[in-house]
Structure formats: C-alpha cells, structure tokens
Specification:
By secondary structure, the protein is of the alpha/beta class. It has 14 helices and 9 strands. Helix 1 runs parallel beside helix 14. The longest helix has 19 residues. The model has no long low-confidence stretch (mean pLDDT 93).
C-alpha cells in the first residue's frame, strides 16, 4: 500500500480529482433492483469519464437507501468495472466485528486487486433501535467510545501482525497476508487503504494523529467542514502511508439540462430528508409529490437550509459551485453524491458534470 493508492489525479479542468458517493437511492415506484442497476450504470460511466473512485455508504432500515451491505454491492460493482477504485464511504465499524470486515475487504481486494478502499465510520448509520438490533446490545455508546481500539484491531487483522502472545495471534483474516507465509504461498502486495470518515472533529483528529486519509461528510454536516479539515491538518503526523494530509469531502451536487428540473429534483430529495429527520423514512418521492406537499413553516425552513448546501442547477452552475467549495475548503478531492428520484437523472448528472469539466471520453473525444 502506498500514497499512490490514495491520491487521485485531476482530469480536464477539474481543480482536484472528482469521485462518486452512491447511496443507492430508491425512488417511489422503483425497486431496489432498479437502484442497483443504476449503480452499475453510474460506476461504468464514472470509470469511462475519469472519476477517481466510487464509494457506497452503509445505511440501515431506510426504505429509500438500498446500501445496507457495502461489501456485497462492491463485489457486484467489481464485476462490472475494471479500473475505477471501489470502496466504502463507509462501513460503520461499531456495527461489525473487525475480523469480519478484514475478511470481507480481503475478499474484495482479491476480486479487484489494487483498487479497493476501506472507509470507516464510527456512527451507527441508522437509528438507535436498529443499531441495537445490529450489535445485539443496548449499550450503543460503547461501540463509538471504543472506536480507536476497534480500528487498531482491524488494522492488525489486515496486516496479520498481532504481537506474540496476543489472544488473536493465531487468528488470520483470509484472504490476507498469512497466505504468503504458507508453503508455496503468494500474496498480492496490495492491502485496502484505510480511510477515516467523519462529520465532526473526533475522526478528523484521529485520522491526523494516525497519518491516515480523511473523508468529511460535507453533504450533511456543512457547518463543520472547515473546522474539521483544519483540525485534521493541524493534527496530522506523517506515516508510512502518507507524508502529508489528504482529505476529500462528500458533496451533494445535481446537474440537469434545465435549471428548473434541478430545483424540482432537489426539492424531492429534501422532502425525503424531512421525513427521515421526523422519523418517517420512506422512498424518495417524485418531484410532483414534493411540489404538491404542504410544507409546514418549520419544514420549509429545514428545506431552505438543507438545499443551501446542495450544489445544483445547470452544468455551468454546478461547476462554479464545486470550484468555489474546493477553494473555500482546500479539499484534495471532491466526492459527489447526486440524489434524485430518478436513476436516469442521477446518471445524467454525473455525465453533465464530467462534460462541464471536460473529463475524458466526453463529446468530441476520439
């Protein structure tokens, strides 16, 4: 593993590498199968147009988000792509035994050598009751509080380097480095790089202290972006993995051929968030349903605030918004999540953004 497996390359006129965060959203009238077919289509488009990486995020008990099993989805995407990096944005470490994650991502690395990222979060990715069902415990804070210890354990399973006398010293994550030490064994030189994800300062500081790459969830915690990135950079200590900080931010962005359509789609996505935040998660509503919805004053205030952090409009408007955000934050990479009711709209958004920056494979390409 090297910094080359972390740092991306900017293409066209993009100020930094562009990547994709896929929530595998399911719109009203659509199925999870429809959403996963869209994910395959977007991943193939992203690969052909020079997006650097494609991540999926762990969520649970949300009808409109079909990404409860990132490792399964990534295995599916690996079979339909050849070059683009694939990863989790992220796996929620407190929900899983570290050994299980090491086995899953060791398997993914064997499927797609040298192009797998392991992004880790410390939140549950769901509500408290669902988190309890996942963890088989009601002591939910325990997982988050023990995150550094869980991370250290996972790292040792990935590297197969527990010290002598450790209770797990004779346990090995397979596929993994132990295969190279077996008679006749040959093992891939690659190991999925670990990223820490966050929406506050905890993971920012930890990523900096450990010299790991950091991904910040600007798309739902915009007010904390600059403080968290500053904390990450101030805390950073060079490591065997990185000699300088590397931070990406998740950005909600939707480009459409007509500005009005962007506003309609973004309103529908915001209504979905209103319902989620009020304990009524569901499928992403249609733009028509959102336009007919009678928002309360409080809900309207939330929508206005939420959509202020969604870069949306025509391709030129989205490009300008992304450029401005990158300048304000100094992010080393922008990971774009385009949320809309329609899979076709999402696919078209990534295509239009690629065109706006002149990424490879666009109109007029040889």
């Amino acid at each position: 593993m090297s910094a080359d497996e972390i740092r991306g390359e900017a293409h066209g006129t993009a100020p930094v590498p562009l990547s994709v965060l896929d929530l595998v959203t399911v719109g009203a009238g659509r199925t999870a199968s429809d959403a996963l077919r869209t994910s395959v289509a977007i991943s193939r488009l992203a690969e052909s147009r020079g997006y650097h990486r494609y991540w999926v995020a762990e969520h649970h008990s949300m009808p409109g988000v079909a990404s409860s099993s990132p490792a399964v989805i990534l295995g599916h995407l690996a079979a339909h792509t050849e070059r683009i990096r694939l990863g989790s944005g992220g796996v929620m470490l407190p929900n899983h035994a570290p050994l299980v994650i090491a086995e899953q991502f060791g398997t993914l690395e064997a499927m797609a050598p040298g192009r797998v990222d392991l992004g880790l979060g410390r939140a549950p990715g769901t509500d408290g009751a669902t988190a309890a069902a996942l963890r088989r415990t009601e002591r939910l804070n325990e997982g988050a509080d023990h995150f550094p210890q869980q991370l250290a354990e996972l790292t040792r399973f990935l590297d197969d380097d527990f010290p002598d006398g450790h209770p797990y010293g004779r346990i090995h994550a397979v596929p993994g480095p132990v295969q190279a030490t077996s008679p006749g064994g040959v093992q891939s030189p690659h190991r999925p790089p670990i990223w820490l994800l966050g929406s506050s300062g905890f993971s920012a500081r930890l990523a900096g202290v450990l010299g790991l790459p950091f991904a910040f969830a600007h798309h739902f915690s915009a007010q904390n972006t600059v403080p968290a990135l500053d904390l990450y950079r101030e805390s950073f200590r060079p490591s065997e993995i990185l000699d300088a900080p590397y931070a990406l931010i998740g950005v909600a962005a939707l480009a459409t051929d007509e500005e009005r359509e962007a506003r309609r789609q973004v309103l529908a996505a915001a209504l979905n968030m209103v319902r989620l935040r009020s304990g009524r998660p569901g499928l992403v509503p249609t733009p028509e349903e959102a336009e007919a919805y009678d928002f309360s004053p409080m809900e309207r205030e939330f929508v206005t605030s939420w959509n202020a952090n969604v870069v949306h409009g025509t391709p030129d408007e989205v490009r300008a918004g992304l450029d401005d955000l990158q300048k304000r934050t100094g992010a080393d990479e922008l990971m774009i999540t385009s949320n809309a009711h329609s899979g076709d709209i999402r696919l078209r958004s990534y295509e239009l953004i690629a065109d706006a920056y002149g990424l490879p494979g666009g109109p007029g390409a040889a």
